[in-house]
Structures are given as C-alpha cells and as structure tokens.
Amino acid sequence: MGGDAGMDEHSESRRMDMRLLIDSNRFIDFCAGDPVVTDVFERASLLVVPFVVLAEIRCGGLLVKRGEAQVRVLNELLQQEGVRVAHSTDVTAHHYATIYATLRRSGTPIPVNDLWIAAIAMEHNLVLYTGDAHFDHITSIPKLG
User: Structurally, how many domains does the chain consist of?
Assistant: First the structure.
C-alpha cells in the first residue's frame, strides 16, 4: 500500500503497479488475515475503498459480531499511504446507468451496491478486487479474483 511503514526493502521491490478498488468481501478476507489477500493489499500501488464499501463495513460494525474490529481495521487502513476513498460523482452515475441497462438487457442484474462499486472502478480505471462471481457479467472492467 504505497509506502507502508511496516514494509521492508524486499516488500517494496515486490509492489505491483496495480491500482485496486476493493470489494467488501476482500476487505473482510483481509481482516481475517487471509495471506493471499494481505499480500495483494500490501503489493498494490494504490488501494481504493469505494464509499459503498465504507458504508457496508460501518453497517457491519453495528450488526455483526466481529464488526467493531473490522471498523477499527478499516480506520487504520484509511490512514495508510496509498489508500484512498472514492465517492460518487455525476460521471459515476453515468457509468452506473450504462452498466445497469446492459445487465438488465442481458438478464443478469447484480445487487445495487455492487453496481456502484463497478461504476467507480470504471470511472477511475481501477482493477476491481472481489470474490463475487456476479461481477464477471461486467466485461468492461478488469477484475482480480
């Protein structure tokens, strides 16, 4: 994550020139200590958290058993160099509408929050890091599983 204080020279040399937008499921995997996800997070040149994921994690903080711990991890992550938050804009809404219409015509709708996530990835030319297969219906954005 772009210049983490905890990264050594070896980790620095392993950094991917990849700009990632993270989905909630990958954040939860990160919180659970999944070594593959942790490695991807640490090696990304930019890690972007969409506003929707912020909301989902904060909702979890109020509703699920480990939610408060996940919110703490989120707050720490957001303080790291190379980590940004992406909010919606008019351009995001345009991409949202395009994706929505395409998926509806093909009979493959996806959840509303995931439409916003895909639209932000498209707007900012980011690789979507997700474990959700329904994003495979959106061929216009690159994905990392």
Answer: 1
